[in-house]
Amino acid sequence: MRSIPWRVQLGIVVAAYAAVVLLAAILVIIRYVQYAENPAGAAAAGGMYAGGDLLLGLFIVCMFFVPTFLLMLVIRKSEPASTRYSQVLLGASLTAPVCFALISPALTVSFGWLAMYRLLISPPLVIVVLLSWLFARFPRAKRLILYALLLEAGSTGIFIAVLVLGRWHL
């Protein structure tokens, strides 16, 4: 039995990412139209709309798990590709402590909302990084992904601890 060529596999992964981006854009546009067509309803049930926005965001993040899982399967046999992937994961994980530092009263107006969104998607990213570490076969890639996992999980843990401890002190 012949296997699928590596370039075709990467093409499938790219197509999957493109499909997810397109579907996410459509879902966000539909949500925007809901707000635009019924502003009074959005104002009257703001909490329900906010909950729907949260679920939509979580759904979009989880949709990206599928092509990422495919990518992990495709690059598993290539050391340069695995190393590059692990470097990207480490770079993305470095943004978690930076965003945690950006959440302060002085910077809330400019970057606080963006930092908060980054930290809210951190728990699902911990799962992705953990799966990436389990699928990694090469020592350098495994080590870089472990650093990314420690950064991501540590930042998430500290963020949750600050939220919980801040609640107790109020």
How many structurally independent domains? 2
Main sheet characteristics: none
* Class by alpha and beta content: mainly alpha
Question: Stretches where pLDDT falls below 50 for ≥5 residues?
Answer: none
The count of β-strands is 0
Question: How far apart, in Å, are the first and last alpha carbons?
Answer: 65 Å
Radius of gyration: 19 Å
Strand content: under 5%
- Overall residue-averaged pLDDT value: 87
Order of helices and strands: HHHHHHHH
State the helical fraction: over 70%
Tell me, what's the shape? flat
Number of helices, where a helix is a run of at least 4 consecutive DSSP H or I residues: 8
Keywords:
mainly alpha; 170 residues; 2 domains; 8 helices; single chain; 88% helix
Topology record:
Elements: H1 6-37, H2 39-44, H3 46-63, H4 65-75, H5 79-102, H6 108-120, H7 122-135, H8 139-169
Helix pairs in contact: 1-3, 1-4, 4-7, 5-6, 5-8, 7-8
